[in-house]
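Q: I'm teaching a short session on how sequence maps to structure, and I want students to see two examples side by side rather than one. Could you give me a first protein with its sequence written out and its structure tokens following it? Keep the formatting plain so it prints cleanly on a handout.
A: Of course. Example one:
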Amino acid sequence: MAGSEYYIQDNSDIEDKKLEAAKGLFKSGNYAGALKLYLDMVNTSFSYKLYYEIGRCYYKLNDFDNAEDAFNRSISLEEIRNPSYVYLGNVYYKQQNVHMAIENWVKAFSFRPNDESVCLNLATSYFSKDMRFQSLFYYLKYLKYAKDKSASYYLEIKKSISDF
């Protein structure tokens, strides 16, 4: 409509400030405060990254059901290279659903094969299911990509693999 009195206001600066505030609250350990800000943004911003952040807040607050919902929503918006798979695997593992945990970590591994935590999660999960070959494969990947090669846990795994 030409000559209309209506226009769309750009509030991206407000959203950016809210996003930075939420990140700061999360970083300082105020997960409930960060969650509130992230949830306020859902009305104006709709992205897989936002639901990922919401899921992380719920996860840190040990609200695994809501974390699971948020991570699944994130994945429904972006299935490829989504870090939600890692956390969703963690959620399922905490809920003692090792099968679903492994399924999500395998998806995460497919696009993050050098992620030491994903490799270690897969290794220990397969080990707990007596799937030694798969476990060994991921333990070797963990040893290759671990950042702290002097950590006692790393050295213990390395020794166990050598003995194996």
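Q: Perfect. Now a second example for contrast.
A: Example two:
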Amino acid sequence: MTETEVIAGWIAPGARVLDLGCGDGRLLRHLWQTRQAPGYGVEIDDAHVLECLKNDVNVLQMDLEDGLATFADQSFDCVILSETLQAIHRQEPLLQDMLRVGREAIVSFP
């Protein structure tokens, strides 16, 4: 079972999802196709943002080091940080922000 499939198993059908450090948007696309879970991705890398757009994924180009002030409290059912935590310098504030904007958080490591 792939990490994508494991994460998808934890997402309720129709859940609103925010994927931080979403890469090319593959996870969000999978969640939409298999769980009908609409979502947004956050990515800083220009090439990944373009890949998200090609994959028909809603993406915002942002630096996670700046926090998640763009998002209102409890605006998502689930916030995902998949294989990205190790790239963040200020980890604790980001984790706190994840719990502010989402009811649940999923963090995975490479």
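Q: What should students look for in example two?
A: Point them to this: The mean pLDDT is 96. Also worth mentioning: The first strand starts at residue 17 and ends at 20.
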